[in-house]
Each structure stands twice: as structure tokens, then as C-alpha cells.
Design goal:
Largest sheet of chain C: 8 strands, antiparallel
Shape of chain C: elongated
Strand order of the largest sheet of chain A: 4-6-5
Number of helices of chain A: 6
Structural class of chain A: mainly alpha
Order of helices and strands of chain A: HHEEHEEHHEEH
Number of strands of chain C: 21
Mean pLDDT of chain C: 84
Chains: A mainly alpha (197), B mainly alpha (602), C alpha+beta (707)
Number of helices of chain C: 23
Helix content of chain C: 40-55%
Shape of chain A: elongated
Low-confidence stretches of chain C: 1-27
Distance between the termini of chain A: 86 Å
Distance between the termini of chain C: 82 Å
Radius of gyration of chain A: 23 Å
Strand content of chain A: 5-15%
Number of domains of chain A: 2
Oligomer: heterotrimer
Radius of gyration of chain C: 34 Å
Number of strands of chain A: 6
Helix content of chain A: 40-55%
Largest sheet of chain A: 3 strands, antiparallel
Largest interface: A-B, 108 and 134 residues
Chain lengths: 197, 602, 707
């Protein structure tokens, strides 16, 4: 027993040094050299050079003129990127049905007359609460509302949105999606889209 | 299943199997100290480590010594991690000034990481300092994985040797596994993940301006910290405006790489690999998912090489893969079918090119149904426990399958090392019954399976279900256990059962609605993890010692072949029967009832 | 000549065991059954039950439900008293059925023991004062005889104890031990010198040195063995018991934890009744492997009983079990592979010698030779060359007997010295007389040996005439038996004193895998050790004193009952029929015993699936009616479902008793094929049968209005 104690202590120290210090430091240095932008959080820089968000982290949008992202279950407010969380509501939980009903009501209220059925990702909370994406269908569903709010022609907006559709990686992996943060920022800054008067 | 579903699954399984042979062969050379490139270039480092630790690599250990060394090393790691968490408030590399962690949570986490479980009772970004993540969690991610692999290699030697009384040197196995296998793979994976957007920085959390500020209602607190109430007794609320977003970052990629490769699963962030900074793209998802099963699958081939009969390793890998693929084909349609309660509200859950459809609650858009279900399966097949979607929000049967995979004893790939040694123990049981059926004293890989081996194998098979069922029983009997449940009814029962299934099999994933960061759950689950890890490792090493001392019975026409499809079926049958029969009643009371209620009502 | 013993005449040419002569009860005779029924109740004592962990759990469960029934009867019960009673009764039946199975198996062994004991009567022995026939004797009761005492047994006397014949030759009736009615010859010296207590001398007399103390005799050991068969667990039985205990513990915690789960479910679902203890006990008993647990000891006892029926007495169950594992079988050539006696097949004259001349000399040399070989030479000369048998005395010839020194036999006649013998002996003889031993004869000798035959050289005076070829006759059907053994994964090795050439030829003809030529006791021992070091299990038969070391070393050692006391003591089995091919049947019996256990274990566990489908929906019917969809068998009511499962579980034990006693069929088809077949029958069958059985019982219960 005691003959193993000394190597056990020393081994723990050696590996703490190697895997706990040398390894992360080496990876951080290499990451900084090779992928400086990604390693720091894929920040989106605003016109002033100050970061206006991360390409990878969703933001809360509830204004009808913006495309809305996935509902977020983070606390105490949606898209709290310092405390990721999902809703963890079970499929039979009445709270889930209530929440989804409320989201449907909110969508319908700001978009009267749109009777299309609502894509499921637009009314269900994402796993992280920080999902920056929605499905192309969810974006398409919102085009009439955003177009109306911004006074844009539906077809032009549709075309604009399609430019922001990311297809499956290598055509195979994952799902087609639209980055809501990038889309909304682009929408705000766009000069090509002219309101119809 | 959609055509793309089938395609993604096929690509995943094929790439996994294609990697098994080269990596498995490489690992075999490492453990046998045959030239394999790295172990020649880094040989001076290896020698230096032995010298620093006063280890003589030439001295072999009996199984008892091997076990003592293993347990001692793990115990010290556990204590160090516990101390680190308690003291992180006064230690450096804590830019968010996070306080020390409560004793019960620190115990739970220390056990969790030392046992390769990585159950997380805490949210990473709001709890752990960078120092704790690195010096504590990352270190344990490496060495707990290397420990599992060492135990497997020791068991392998039990089969390969004859009339021997030693099964290797724990320090050497630990060192080789970490230095030549885990470290290089983790470094490579970490960098690829960073390229996809996984963060890797020592900078403090970032603050960015929100495009659209939001407001929310918050209960107003009095000076005493208590919620204020108005005259009617309703809580007084105030409106808070949020204009900025705080982005939690940190040295994540280096930890994520090893938590996936080492089947640890403990995420850097609370939501684990659902977090966009932890798993930003479908490619990062594919690689992380591949990393979960990579080493466990490849170890099957390592095993085959080390015992001198690669067919044996392939047979075990085949058994694992058959179960895995079968369950994929079951779970993906279950999740894709969606939630009938939402269909009733007029929500469109049909899969199309423009949307994944299905049960999207708790799932990320970029992963959709296929990758979320596939990950859930991979992470519970292996004892990884990382998640990229919230299992608690899966459909009842979709959530039951990951739970059941854990209850099978984490042997479908399983943890690095531990999965395969668990599977070999199942093979011993299968061989025992089958051997009797052909009228011979059972033998596996030339070693006679006798009362002692059966006794130890029985312990290995007995303990996890015991921990899971007794733990769950205690939790549903005490108020502190019941109070943590987030969802009512049968689903709440599933949450508790899932927690103990996860801890009792060293997985670490959760039905995360359960508030498990309480003294009761921290303690109960911590004990479950301890039992499940070491009460399995010790009998396994005992088997290794007993087998090493035996003669080898030459294979003849009267011996039971253990590399044939028939044996694969037999092995699967044994795993399923033991798993299914022990857990069928509880599963009936949890997910099965929930499923019937959900679909009966709609 | 070889150094093999020529006791072959004792062996029939039939390599299968002859039909049983031992009186034995039918498999399930009415008397035996009646006896067993009574014993089933006797075995309800807790200390008896405790020895079988699986059934002990059922036993405790039965007591528990009995108490619950009493509570329901006289107070507030957890369920209707009638239901608890019905479950309780069938739980007790489960215990009784298991007891019954054991009792039936033991009953057969007991009958055999009683038969053996009848042979062991007190005999007045004639104890000699000195180890000489003509010494004075005094009458002493046989139980008082000690090792080393010398007795005389005369015609009509019973042999008073096990011992060695030190003087005399006699025919002995051993039917009391072997069931074989034909008398056997016992004589001093050599391999036929042992006698067994309880046998009877029919003619002549024997002086016997007693070799065992009272209570240690062969009969005593046999009786002890038969009676203690159930108490000694074999290694595989112990290992299996451990596994069954593990399964029992798994299901124990599965059912025990169901109570809190059920309470929680009632609480959270807001309705229904929690599961009752009665139902939990019923579920537990149905799930734990009672089928194999209840039959395990019966299988072991029956296995030893089957050995006894084959007239093999094993000294331990361990030996029987080990027989199933045998990898290598050492078989003596003579008597096992070949008929003991060789036959002269050809006369091969030397150059310049006429065939007739050789035949004539050979016949003359053999006229007085009463060995089977000698007789066959005379017969061959007569059949092939028309030479009539002549009266050796009329010719005035004197017969020269075979001795170990000369290794020749023959006649002296009219000044001629006709000899026949092994080549080197005759060669020496010829050279001594001043003749020459032609090189050509030596090459004839070699040719014959190469063919697997034994060459004898005939010489007339100093002139070598030629060679007689004595052919070994390989037993009919033996090649097929070896092929079967190969299928079973057993390697056969022929042991012979012959030279390599001869041995190789016979080995090829008989189809053995390997052979050991010019075998000495040391070489045999070495061979066994070598195989054992390679991890193989070795079986052998033997009867001579010089076999004893090898028998002691072999894992399965079958001594011939005709053999010496030393051989019998070194072996762990004795074949009363003294049939060396019996080993094959011994191996089969050993395998059957293991297979029966494995198959019933698989069956037992596979049964659980159906039982779940019967009990789970029933147990939670009030809390979660939706679980009714799991009632795939459409069982009438929750009560009938649970009762049907319990009844099925009990009845299946009874239904499988014949299988447990007979053992499942063994076919030598190779491991993989065997496993596939048994998995299909007992695994798949075990899944399906209870669905049918439980449904049928449920329908029956409904039709008779019990539920």
C-alpha cells in the first residue's frame, strides 16, 4: 500500500502539470495563432468596431420588425449567454403546451392573416437557450410579417432571406438553417432593400 | 426516416468503424511497447516521467497491487479535485471571481470526474473557475479515462498470459495511455474544434450590445434579501431592461476534446454540447460525436490484437454495433414523429427540406432531429454523458432508449476501457451458460471460466442495477428526493430513474429538469458513482489476476467459437436479457406509461 | 510379442455396453413416485431448503404469503383472502415440486445403493494363520477383517472382503457387483488377481490377502458415493449456483424496489392501489430461475445415476463432470481398438523354402500352444494348406513352452527343434545353433510390421524357414466411434507396446488421431503430463498395476473392474463391465449433465419475458390502466393473470423432471451446431412456451370459474 503512495502522489502532480497546464496552454496558444477569431468567440463587429454579438450566440428578438429566433429558456431573461439552459419540459408537461400556445398566440397576434401552420422550431425552446439559428421554413413563415413591418416587398425580402440560408455542411451534415442574428443585423444595415412606398 | 437521416447515420457508423482498425492497432502497439512512431519520439518524456515519479517500468504488479495503485491514484485525484473546488475562490485564474463550491456539490463533482462519470450537478459557466476547469476537471478527464483503459489492458493480459502471476504495471499503462493516446488525439481534436468556432481563451467573459434590448419582470427583493410582497400577498415585481449580452467563454476546446474522447462528458458550459460555443457546427458535432465512440470502438480491435486473435475483437465490436444501429433505427423515428400534444395546437412537425420538424423542444436547429437522437444514443451507449439536446424533453420512448442503454451497464461501446471490460464480463457470463449448453466446462479465449470468475462477473453485473434501483427507490421515498422533480407524473419518475441510471453506470447525462444540485442528490448520486466505478473495476481486475494464473486450453472442435455470428447473437442476448429483465418493470412505470398516456390522449 | 496383456477374451467384440443386467427401477415407477411424494414433504425442513438458495427464496416467499393469508382471513388483509390463498398454495407447490424432483432422482440412486448393500452381507471368513493354503484357519466375521489378513475362499464361499489373490485359480461369480452372470477367472499374479467382497467363488479355491479395512471396501465406497451424490456439488454446479444466486438477487431487488416505485406512482398518478406484497412475491418467484433452481440437484443426482446404469461407478460427481470436458482420450490398443487376439493371416516363406514346409513347421510349433494366436496358426495351416491337426503326443513330441527368457515356443520332435517367436529371439536362437539369419527374412519381418501386423519367425533347428504374419483385427465400428469423438472435439491416442511401424499402420486403420508406440508406464505418464500442461483434460482406461501411475495422473481415469486393486484405487471410476470403449459413453454422460443444466438455465431465464407480460399489467392495473396494452396474452383478470403465471411456473418444474432425469440428448456434431440447436430449442422455446402455457392456464381458470 505505502509503496504505491509515493508514485501515486508524484504521478498526480506530473499529470496535473502536463494535462492541466501544459496541454490547455499549448492548445490555447495554437488556437490563438491558427484561429484567432474563432477562439475568442466568433464576434460580430459593429460599424464602430465594437462587438455587436457573436455569430454563434443567438439574441432575443421580440420586435415584429425582426425575425424572431428560437424561444429561449434561459433565466432570468432569454438568451442569457452567461447561463445557458434548456426548458427541460417533458412532452406531457402542461407548461410546455401553455408555453407553445402563448408563442403561437404571439406570432398570430403580430401577423394577423397568416394562417400557415407554424414550423415547430419557432415555438419550441432550443436546447442551449442560445441557438442562433432557425429553420428556413421558420424564416419563410416570418417573411410576410417582417416585410409588412418594414414596408418591404415580400418577394425581395424572401430573396434576401434566402441568401442567409446555410445549407447542410458538405451537403450532408446537420440541417439547413438561417442565422437570425446575422440576418437581423444585415436587415438593419441593408441598403439594397428599398421600402415600397 | 428521411433519406438524409439515413445518409448521416450511415456516414457516421462507417467512419466510426473505419477508424477502429488503425487506431485500435496503434493502441495495441502502444500498450505492448512496440514501435508506433510517437512512443519512440516521446520516449525520453516517458522515461522522465517514470524517473520523476520513482517508478520502475520493468516491475510488474500482481492484480492486488495493480488494484491498490489504481484506487490510490484515483482517491488522491478525487481529494485534490475536492480541495481545488472548495478553494477556487482564493486561487488564481478566476476572472469571474466565482466563490468556492459547497461541500456536497464539490464531493459530487470530485467523485463524478474521478469516476469518469462527469455527472454535472452544477452549471459550468456560473460555477467553475478556469483554474478548476483546467487543473481539476481536465486533468481528471485524462487520467480517469487512462485508468479505465489501463484496467482493460490488465484484463487483456489476464487472457493473453498463461501461468502468470502479474498483470502489468499500472503506472506504465496510465502513462502510455495518457501520453501517447489521449493527449495527441485531444490536441488534434481541440484545434479542429476551434476552427469550427469552439472558444479557447483565457480572456474573461465578453460583453456585447444587444441588437434589440429586452425587458423582463423580476421579483423585487427587500433589504433582507427576501421577496417583497404587496398588501394582497402577491410578490412585487420590477421591470429590468437588458441591453447587453454577457458571452461566457474560456478554455473550452481543450476540455471538450478530452471530455468527448475520454467518454467523460462533463461540459464546459451548462448545456454541454448543445451550447454553440461548445459545439458550433454540424462538422464539430460530427467530430465530437465520433470522438465519443472512437476509442471504445477501437479498443475492441486493440483487445483482439493483444490476445492474438483479432476476430474476437471484431465479434465484440459487431455485437455492440448491431445493438447501436438497431436502436438508432428505433429512436430517430420516435423523435421525428414529434409531440402529439403540439400537433393538436396546429404546429407543423413534418420533416421537410426547409425544416427538421419532429420533437424540437430542447434541440438545436443546426443539429435537428437526426443528430440530436444519434448523439443521445452515442453518449449513452458510451458512458460519455455529454448532450447536444435536452434528454428531458425527448418523447417518452425516445428518452427511454438512452436511459435503457445506460441500464444495460454501459457496455455498448461503453466508457473507454470500462465499456469493453464490462462487455467482456458479459461475454464471460454468456460463455458460461453457452458452454454448459454444449456440455463442457465453459472457457473463453482459452481460459476456463470457473466459480471464482463467475462470482466476480456476477458482482460486476449485479452492482449497477442494484445501485440504480435502490437509489431510485430511496429517492422516491424521501421528500427531498421528490421535491427536485421538474415534471409531474410518470415523467418525474423517469427523471429520478434517469439520474440514478446515469450515476449508477458512470454515464453523466441527465434528464436535466431534475434539480440535482441538492445535498441529497449530490450525496446519493456521488455514492452511486463511486460504487458503480470501483465495485466494477476491482472484481474485473480480480478476474484478470485469476485468468492470468490459468493455463490456456487449446481451441478445438469441441470448444465454443466466440467469433461467430452465433456468438454475437448470444452476447447481445445476454446483455439485453439482463438489462431488459432487471429494468422492464421500472421502465413500464416511467416512460412506457408516459408514452401510452401521451399517445392515448391525442 | 508385445507386452500387452492378453485378457482380451474377457471383452466381447461388441463395443457398445451390453444391455443392463442390473436390476433397476423404471424411470418413474409407481412405488418410487409414492416414496418421492412423501420425501417431498420431508424436505420442507428449513435446513434442507437452505442448501438451495433459489428455492429457499421461494420457501421464504411461501411462508410470507401464508402469513398474509392468515392476516386476510382473520383481519384486514391486503388482498382478498381467496386470492392470497391461491397464490400461496401454488408457491408451496413450487417448493414441493422441486423437492419431488430431487426425491425422484435420489430414489433411483437409493434403489441402486440398496441393491449394492444386499451384496454386502456379513460373511464368516476363513482367516488363515499363515499366508499358505494349508495353514490352519479360524472363522472370523467379515467386518472384523483388517488390511493384511489372509483368508481362504473355497468353492461356494463368498469373498469376505476386497483383496489380492496370492495363491490359486478359481472361477468367480461377480454378478452381485457387475450384474454379469458369466463367471470370471481370478488367479494369483498378473492383472486378474483382485477380488471384490461379496462375490462368490464357484470352483476351486483362492488365498486372498485382504486389502481394505472395514468400511473402506469398494462396495462401501460405491454405496457412500451413491448415497452422497446430492451433497457434493461439482465445480460447474457451484459456479452455476453462484450465477443463479446473482440472477435471484437481480430479481429480488427488481421486485423489492417495485413497492416504493408503486407507492410513488400511486401518489403521482393520483389514483389506484399500490402493488400488494402477495403480487410482489408472486412476481419474484416467477422471475427467479426456479425451473433450473428446482431441478439442479436432480440433474446432478440423475447424472451419477445414469453412470451407474451404464455400470460405471464414479468415485465423485466431479469425475463425471470432468468427463464432459475430456480433450484427449488414451486408449489401449489391445482389447479396445483391436480384438485382443491376433489371427495368423499368411505364411511367408524365406527364399528356397516351400510355403507348405513353413506351414507344416508352424503348425507343429503351435499344436500345443493354447493361446488364441497359437490356435489361429493351426487353423490357418488347416484351412489354407489342408494340414490336419496332429496329436502332439502321438508324434512323440515334447512341447516347449513360451518363457519370458526364451520368448519362443515350439516342439522338439524326432531330433528336430521347431521354434516360433519374435524375430530377434529366433535370430539369436538360430545363430547360437550355428546357423545364419538371412537378411531377406529380416526384410520380410519389417514388411509385416509395416503393415501393422506382428511377425513371428519360424525356425527348424538352425534354419529359419520364414515368417508368420499375425494380424491385429480392428474392432468393427470403432472407426466411426473415433470419428464421432473427433466431432465432439476429443482427440484419441492409441497406446501400444508395438513398434512404431506396426502402431502407425493400426492407428491408420482404426482412425485414431495419434498413437504412442513402444509404450512404457513412464512414457504414458509423460504423455499425459504433456497434454495436461498444454491445458488439455486427459482420460484413460487401464487395468494393470503398471497403469496405476498413469491412471492417478489422468483427469478421468476409468479402471476396469477385472483389473488389479492398484488400478482401481488409482482411477476415479470403475467400469464394472470392464469395457474400455465405455469411456465414450462416460464422456457423453458427463456432457449431458452439463448440457441439461445449461439448457434449463436458458429456458428458465427466457421464460421471464412472458411472465412480465402477464404480471406487470396486472400488478399496476389500478394505477395505470393504460398498461393494459402490455397484456398481449389477453388474460382475463389481473388475479387470473398473476395466478396463471405462478401456476405455470410451478407446473413447468414437474413437466421438466423427466428431461432432468434423462438428460438432454447429446449428438456429436461440434460445438457451434450443438449451441445453435440448444439455443433454438431452449432459448427460443423458453420464450414462446410460457406465453402459450400461461394463456392456457388462464383460460382453464376462467372456464372452471375459479376467477
Amino acid at each position: 500500500m505505502y509503496q504505491h503512495l509515493k508514485p501515486a502522489i508524484l504521478m498526480l502532480l506530473v499529470w496535473t502539470l502536463l494535462t492541466g497546464t501544459v496541454y490547455p496552454t499549448a492548445v490555447t496558444s495554437l488556437a490563438y495563432l491558427l484561429f484567432p477569431e474563432q477562439s475568442e468567440g466568433s464576434l460580430l463587429l459593429g460599424p464602430d468596431g465594437a462587438p455587436s454579438g457573436s455569430r454563434l450566440i443567438g439574441q432575443p428578438f421580440s420586435d415584429p420588425k425582426y425575425f424572431w429566433g428560437r424561444p429561449s429558456a434561459t433565466a432570468p431573461y432569454p438568451y442569457n449567454a452567461a447561463a445557458s439552459s434548456g426548458s427541460n419540459l417533458g412532452p406531457r408537461n402542461p407548461a410546455l403546451v401553455q408555453a407553445v400556445s402563448a408563442r403561437i398566440a404571439a406570432l398570430r397576434a403580430t401577423d394577423t392573416g397568416n394562417s400557415a401552420s407554424i414550423p415547430v422550431d419557432l415555438v419550441t425552446a432550443s436546447g442551449s437557450g442560445l441557438d442562433p439559428h432557425i429553420s428556413p421554413a421558420a424564416a419563410a413563415y416570418q417573411v410576410p410579417r417582417v416585410a409588412k413591418q418594414r414596408g418591404l416587398p415580400v418577394a425581395a425580402l424572401q430573396e434576401f432571406v434566402e441568401r442567409y440560408v446555410e445549407s447542410r455542411q458538405f451537403g450532408i451534415l446537420g440541417e439547413a438553417r438561417v442565422n437570425v442574428v446575422e440576418l437581423n443585423l444585415a436587415l438593419d444595415r441593408s441598403t439594397s432593400l428599398k421600402p415600397v412606398r | 426516416m428521411t433519406a438524409n437521416s439515413v445518409l448521416q447515420i450511415t456516414v457516421y457508423v462507417l467512419v466510426l468503424l473505419a477508424c477502429a482498425k488503425p487506431l485500435g492497432g496503434y493502441m495495441a502497439r502502444i500498450y505492448e511497447d512496440r514501435p508506433a512512431g510517437l512512443n519512440r519520439w516521446l520516449a525520453p518524456v516517458e522515461r522522465l516521467i517514470y524517473r520523476l515519479c520513482s517508478v520502475n517500468p520493468a516491475v510488474e504488479m500482481r492484480w492486488t497491487d495493480y488494484t491498490v495503485a489504481l484506487l490510490l491514484f484515483n482517491l488522491l485525484g478525487l481529494l485534490a479535485l475536492f480541495a481545488l473546488q472548495r478553494l477556487q475562490g482564493v486561487l488564481p485564474l478566476n476572472p469571474q471571481h466565482l466563490p468556492g463550491i459547497s461541500p456536497d456539490s464539490a464531493f459530487n463533482t470530485a467523485v463524478s470526474f474521478a469516476t469518469n462519470t462527469n455527472w454535472q450537478g452544477y452549471g459550468g459557466e456560473i460555477t467553475m473557475s478556469y483554474l478548476t476547469q483546467m487543473l481539476g476537471l481536465t486533468v481528471q478527464n485524462f487520467v480517469s479515462a487512462a485508468t479505465g483503459m489501463a484496467a482493460l489492458v490488465a484484463l487483456t493480459r489476464g487472457f493473453a498470459r498463461r501461468n502468470a502471476d502479474t498483470i502489468g504495471n499500472f503506472w506504465v499503462d496510465l502513462t502510455r495511455g495518457t501520453l501517447y493516446i489521449l493527449l495527441p488525439l485531444a490536441t488534434a481534436l481541440a484545434l479542429v474544434l476551434v476552427s469550427q468556432g469552439v472558444v479557447q481563451t483565457f480572456s474573461p467573459y465578453r460583453t456585447v450590445a444587444l441588437t434589440q434590448p429586452v425587458t423582463y419582470e423580476q421579483a423585487k427583493l427587500g433589504d433582507d434579501g427576501q421577496t417583497l410582497e404587496d398588501a394582497a400577498g402577491n410578490p412585487v415585481t420590477e421591470t429590468v431592461a437588458v441591453r447587453e449580452q454577457t458571452l461566457a467563454v474560456g478554455p473550452a476546446a481543450s476540455q471538450i476534446a478530452i471530455k468527448q474522447l475520454g467518454t467523460n462528458g462533463g461540459g464546459f458550459f451548462n448545456v454541454n454540447s448543445a451550447h454553440p460555443f461548445e459545439n458550433p457546427t454540424p462538422l464539430s458535432n460530427f467530430l465530437e460525436m465520433l470522438a465519443i465512440l472512437l476509442i471504445p470502438a477501437a479498443l475492441c480491435h486493440t483487445f483482439g490484437v493483444l490476445i492474438g486473435d483479432t476476430r474476437q475483437g471484431w465479434a465484440i465490436l459487431a455485437a455492440m454495433t448491431v445493438v447501436f444501429v438497431t436502436l438508432i433505427v428505433v429512436i430517430v423515428p420516435l423523435e421525428q414523429a414529434g409531440n402529439p400534444a403540439l400537433s393538436a395546437l396546429g404546429v407543423d412537425q413534418q420533416p421537410q427540406a426547409s425544416q427538421p420538424g419532429g420533437n424540437m423542444e430542447g434541440k438545436e436547429t443546426r443539429f435537428g432531429i437526426t443528430n440530436s437522437a444519434l448523439w443521445a444514443l452515442a453518449t449513452t451507449a458510451a458512458s460519455n454523458g455529454s448532450v447536444n439536446a435536452m434528454h428531458d424533453s425527448f418523447t417518452p420512448l425516445g428518452g427511454m432508449i438512452p436511459m435503457w442503454l445506460m441500464q444495460l451497464g454501459e457496455v455498448i461501446y461503453g466508457g473507454v476501457g470500462s465499456g469493453l471490460y464490462g462487455m467482456i464480463v458479459f461475454a464471460i457470463v454468456a460463455v458460461f451458460v453457452a458452454g454448459l449448453m454444449i456440455g463442457r466446462t465453459p472457457e473463453y479465449l482459452g481460459k476456463k471460466i470457473e466459480a471464482y470468475e463467475v462470482k466476480m462477473a456476477s458482482l460486476v453485473i449485479l452492482i449497477p442495477p442494484f445501485v440504480v434501483l435502490v437509489g431510485t427507490a430511496v429517492a422516491v421515498m424521501v421528500d427531498v428526493g421528490k421535491a427536485s422533480v421538474a415534471n409531474a407524473g410518470a415523467h418525474g419518475f423517469s427523471e429520478i430513474l434517469y439520474a440514478f441510471s446515469s450515476a449508477g453506470n458512470n454515464n453523466g447525462s441527465a434528464f436535466a429538469g431534475l434539480s440535482a444540485n441538492t445535498p441529497f442528490y449530490n450525496t446519493a448520486l456521488g455514492l452511486a458513482m463511486l460504487f458503480a466505478r470501483y465495485w466494477l473495476a476491482v472484481p474485473t481486475l480480480a478476474i484478470a489476476g485469476a485468468l492470468a494464473a490459468k493455463k490456456v486450453v487449446p481451441f478445438g472442435p469441441g470448444s465454443l467459437p466466440t467469433h461467430t455470428p452465433l456468438f454475437v447473437v448470444l452476447l447481445i442476448g445476454t446483455v439485453l436479457i439482463v438489462g431488459a429483465l432487471a429494468f422492464l418493470p421500472v421502465l413500464a412505470l416511467g416512460p412506457v406509461v408516459e408514452h401510452l398516456q401521451l399517445f392515448g390522449a391525442h | 510379442m508385445s507386452n500387452e496383456k492378453s485378457h482380451a477374451s474377457l471383452y466381447g467384440p461388441d463395443i457398445r455396453t451390453p444391455a443392463l443386467k442390473r436390476p433397476h427401477s423404471a424411470l418413474l415407477g409407481p412405488e418410487l413416485l409414492q416414496q418421492a411424494v412423501w420425501e417431498s414433504f420431508g424436505k420442507l425442513a428449513p435446513q434442507t431448503q437452505f442448501k438451495n438458495p433459489v428455492m429457499f427464496v421461494v420457501y421464504l416467499g411461501s411462508i410470507l404469503t401464508t402469513l398474509l393469508w392468515l392476516q386476510a382471513l382473520f383481519g384486514q388483509g391486503e388482498a382478498p383472502a381467496g386470492f392470497i390463498f391461491a397464490v400461496t398454495v401454488w408457491l408451496w407447490f413450487t417448493v414441493l415440486f422441486a423437492n419431488f424432483a430431487e426425491a425422484v432422482a435420489e430414489g433411483r440412486s437409493k434403489a441402486q445403493a440398496a441393491f449394492l448393500r444386499s451384496a454386502k452381507r456379513d460373511i464368516m471368513a476363513k482367516k488363515l494363520d499363515a499366508p499358505r493354503r494349508d495353514a490352519n484357519y479360524s472363522k472370523v466375521a467379515s467386518p472384523l477383517l483388517r488390511r493384511g489378513d489372509v483368508v481362504i475362499v473355497e468353492a461356494g464361499d463368498f469373498v469376505p472382503g476386497d483383496g489380492e489373490v496370492i495363491e490359486g485359480v478359481a472361477s468367480v461369480d461377480e454378478s452381485a457387483i457387475t450384474g454379469e452372470s458369466a463367471p470370471v477367472i481370478r488367479e494369483s499374479g498378473g492383472d486378474f488377481s483382485s477380488v471384490t467382497g461379496g462375490t462368490r467363488v464357484l470352483s476351486d479355491w483362492l488365498v486372498v490377502r485382504i486389502s481394505t479395512n472395514p468400511g473402506e471396501s469398494f462396495l462401501d465406497r460405491m454405496i457412500a458415493m451413491v448415497e452422497s451424490a446430492k451433497r457434493q456439488k461439482t465445480p460447474n454446479e457451484i459456479a452455476l449456483t453462484i450465477l443463479l444466486v446473482a440472477f435471484t438477487l437481480i430479481f429480488l431487488k427488481t421486485t423489492a424496489t417495485l413497492l416504493p416505485f408503486s407507492l410513488y406512482s400511486v401518489e403521482t398518478a393520483g389514483g389506484g392501489q399500490p402493488i400488494t406484497i402477495t403480487v410482489l412475491v408472486a412476481l419474484l418467484v416467477c422471475l427467479i430461475p426456479t425451473t433450473i433452481g428446482g431441478l439442479l440437484s436432480a440433474i446432478g443426482v440423475a447424472g451419477i445415476g445414469r453412470m451407474m446404469q451404464k455400470n460405471v461407478v464414479a468415485t465423485s460427481g466431479r469425475a463425471v463432470e470432468a468427463a464432459g470436458d475430456v480433450d484427449v482420450l488414451l486408449l489401449d490398443k489391445t482389447g479396445t481398438i483391436t480384438l485382443g487376439n491376433r489371427h495368423a493371416s499368411t505364411f511367408i516363406p524365406a527364399t528356397g523354402v516351400l510355403e507348405n514346409e513353413l506351414a507344416d513347421a508352424a503348425q507343429l510349433a503351435s499344436l500345443a500352444d493354447e493361446t488364441p494366436e497359437g490356435r489361429s496358426i493351426v487353423v490357418l495351416a488347416k484351412q489354407k494348406y489342408g494340414l490336419r491337426e496332429r496329436d502332439i503326443h502321438a508324434l512323440g513330441a515334447t512341447f516347449v513352452h513360451f518363457t519370458a527368457q526364451t520368448r519362443m515356443s515350439g516342439v522338439n520332435l524326432e531330433g528336430r527343434q521347431i521354434r516360433k517367436g519374435a524375430a530377434d529371439a529366433v535370430s539369436a536362437h538360430v545363430l547360437e545353433l550355428g546357423g545364419t539369419f538371412p537378411r531377406q527374412i529380416q526384410s520380410l519381418v519389417d514388411d509385416v510390421a509395416r503393415r501393422g501386423s506382428t511377425p513371428l519367425v519360424v525356425a527348424d533347428g538352425a534354419r529359419a524357414l520364414g515368417v508368420i504374419e499375425l494380424k491385429d483385427i480392428v474392432k468393427g465400428g470403432i472407426k466411426e466411434r473415433f470419428a464421432e469423438l473427433r466431432q465432439m472435439g476429443i482427440k484419441t491416442i492409441m497406446i501400444t507396446g508395438d513398434n512404431r511401424l506396426t502402431a502407425a499402420a493400426i492407428a491408420a486403420e482404426a482412425g485414431v488421431d495419434d498413437f504412442l508406440a513402444e509404450a512404457t508406464p513412464e512414457a504414458k505418464l509423460k504423455l499425459i503430463r504433456k497434454h495436461q500442461e498444454d491445458g488439455r483434460l486427459v482420460a484413460m482406461t487401464g487395468d494393470g498395476t503398471n497403469d496405476a501411475p498413469a491412471l492417478a495422473q489422468a483427469d478421468v481415469a476409468v479402471a476396469m473392474n477385472t483389473g488389479t486393486q492398484a488400478a482401481k484405487e488409482a482411477g476415479n471410476m470403475v467400469d464394472l463391465d470392464s469395457n474400455p470403449t465405455k469411456l465414450i459413453e462416460i464422456v457423453e454422460t458427463g456432457k449431458q449433465m452439463l448440457m441439461t443444466r445449461g439448457a434449463l438455465t436458458t429456458f428458465s431465464i427466457a421464460n421471464d419475458v412472458a411472465k412480465y407480460f402477464a404480471i406487470i399489467p396486472a400488478a399496476f392495473a389500478s394505477t395505470y390502466p393504460v398498461l393494459g396494452v402490455l397484456n398481449v396474452m389477453g388474460l382475463a383478470t389481473p388475479a387470473s393473470a398473476i395466478l396463471s403465471a405462478v401456476i405455470f411456473n410451478a407446473l413447468i418444474i414437474v413437466a421438466l423432471i423427466p428431461l432432468a432425469l434423462k438428460g438432454i440428448r447429446y449428438r456429436p456434431v461440434g460445438a457451434a451446431q450443438l449451441l445453435r440447436t440448444n439455443l433454438l430449442i431452449y432459448g427460443l422455446g423458453g420464450l414462446i412456451v410460457p406465453f402459450i402455457g400461461i394463456k392456457a392456464i388462464d383460460m382453464l381458470l376462467v372456464s372452471v370459474g375459479l376467477v
